[in-house]
Give the backbone structure.
Amino acid sequence: MPHDRPHVAIVGAGVIGLSCAWQARRDGWRVTLIDPHPMRGSSWAAAGMLAPVTESTPSEPGVLELGLQAARLWPQFASDLTHDAAQPCGFNDAGTFVVGIDRDDASELTRVQSQLAAYQLDYTPLTPSEARARESALSPHLSSAMFVPGDTSVDNRALLGALTAVVDRLGITMLRERATTVDAQHVRTAAGSTIMADAVVVAAGIDTPALIPGLDIRPVKGQILRVLMTGATGKLLTATVRACVHGRHVYLVPRSNGEIVIGATMEERGRDIAVTVGAVGDLLQDAREVVPGIDECELIETWAGLRPVSRDNLPIMRIVNGVVVASGHGRNGILLAPLAAHVVKDILKGVVTP
């Protein structure tokens, strides 16, 4: 691209930063990404559920509204990315089963059904036997079940792979250095580099407050597991399963490569990223109650990551001290990625985005 085109420097190469870089490049900007470890933050550990309703809580209507907006953008986002990357991005529209184990868990499903009805979104109430007829690996001891076709998923690592391919194919510059200071037109790094740009975007997750002092973003720990379906298990699951198990939440998200992602905890532990026996034990115990065949799977990975969470759980997507900020997406970073990229693109154009 000619050097007379405007140049944007984007700090952070997780799913938000990569998505913003791709969309800015599509919009005619020269783009430089700055990140010492691209793709290795919370985006790498995520399950990739695109589930605005079943992930929501009644006390956070703003989070739900943004999630619904983002979910509507996802099919086109996935199609465009697959085209530009010339490889699949892992989008899976198989929908989500939501199940409960005991009577109290059934009340949680009733709440979710009320939200779906309030937003005129599709869902199908199922008896436990009907749910098992559609996903035979589900436990025979379910108390309640439903199917939500609009809650889809994406393989987070396939998504990151496609976004990385776009970086290579579209000539986006990747600088593997740690940013130390930023202003409206400069990024300086620990290696001594100074990147001059017409605009600067910070999408650095939990490291954003170090670059933009005063932002109230904290790390919230999540632990997650990956298991591999084997010849003994066959193809256990075809669609995502979200479950309430004696009041605790667990999800199981199948991948096309035979893996199942199981997660995820929410822990206020600062920057602690240790994988703990207790969390792994709880996740496996709950997953086994929902899908007993998990016992025969191979445990292939445990991981702990840090989500960037704002005070009100709403993402920060606005100009702060002349710098465009796209951070604080919490546990919904992958869901909100198309919306964040759209908002940042509008801000770069000078369009006021509500």
In short: The chain has nine helices and 20 strands. The radius of gyration is 20 Å. Residues 35 and 176 are 5 Å apart (CA to CA). The chain has two domains: 1-92+153-216+311-354, 96-149+217-310.
